[in-house]
Structure to design on (197 residues):
């Protein structure tokens, strides 16, 4: 799940719409929107792109509110192999067409040859200097999602382009889903799920 509040006060709540109990199920991303501080909610709606043909996993909703532009930046994965970006400039009423940004994740391959990747899930952050940061995790163990490492991607141009961050070192053996926060001294801390047995 993911909840963010836009610059103008709209509350956007996102979640996985799973048709079975599995990370690899046929999944869409749903959103509900509130314009009165969560007292009432608009009807739920699927905001992930329509699927063609076979079922697929579209999941890991991760949103970042841009305090400078007012946009909501939104990332998600498809089949743990592709990373996509969308944005809303009207508080989640409408969304841009998804743009594939998997090439950003390809920048990690020389250091970590992943076969599964995903953002968040949850929310990213905008640093005091305007940089957008989205927590990510990578795995080279396939569908069991381990071993894995945590990292980030970032944008310095309001989501137009994305770059890879550093892999957390020393990494946990099974670091996966994570969330980011900026500390008072400017550093970024990642809170990481550890799935070590």
């Amino acid at each position: 799940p993911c909840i963010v509040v836009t610059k103008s006060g709209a509350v956007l709540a996102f979640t996985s719409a799973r048709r079975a109990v599995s990370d690899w199920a046929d999944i869409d991303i749903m959103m509900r929107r509130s314009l009165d501080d969560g007292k009432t909610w608009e009807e739920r709606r699927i905001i992930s792109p329509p699927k063609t043909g076979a079922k697929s996993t579209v999941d890991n909703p991760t949103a970042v509110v841009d305090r400078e532009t007012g946009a909501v930046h939104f990332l998600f994965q498809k089949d743990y192999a592709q990373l996509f970006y969308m944005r809303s400039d009207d508080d989640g009423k409408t969304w841009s067409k998804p743009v594939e940004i998997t090439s950003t994740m390809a920048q990690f391959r020389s250091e970590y040859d992943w076969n599964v990747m995903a953002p968040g899930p949850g929310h990213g952050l905008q640093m005091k200097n305007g940089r957008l940061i989205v927590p990510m995790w990578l795995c080279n163990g396939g569908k069991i999602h381990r071993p894995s490492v945590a990292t980030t991607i970032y944008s310095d141009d309001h989501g137009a382009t994305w770059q890879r961050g550093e892999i957390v070192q020393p990494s946990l053996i099974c670091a996966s889903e994570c969330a980011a926060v900026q500390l008072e001294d400017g550093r970024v801390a990642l809170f990481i799920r550890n799935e070590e047995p």
Q: What stands out?
A: Residues 22 and 197 are 19 Å apart (CA to CA). The two ends are 25 Å apart (CA to CA).
